[in-house]
Amino acid sequence: MKYLIIKNKKLYKLFFKFELKRLQYKSLAYNLNIPSYIRQHSFSCLTKLSNSSSYVMIKQRCFISNNGRSVSNHFKLARIKLRLLISNNYINGVKKLS
Hints:
By secondary structure, this protein is mainly alpha-helical. 51% of the residues lie in helices and 4% in strands. It has 2 domains: 1-59, Helix Hairpins, CATH 1.10.287.1480; 62-98, no CATH class.
């Protein structure tokens, strides 16, 4: 399981390294007010960027159990751990809906 944490850290570093460059190329590629040859060049630069540097490749994981399934984006916890912490009153302000 430790290799999954290391893999995610590498992917986060890659994402932050190329984030600004990717946003610049995307804004040029989808801007209709500039000439088409500049837009085509920015599209080709986007395809040359590494696919592993995109945010989609990063797996959201629970920071307590390192579980990759059903992770809440707000708490960064897996559903099972979140339910356990709420039932033991470690997280305040969350109520049962039904």
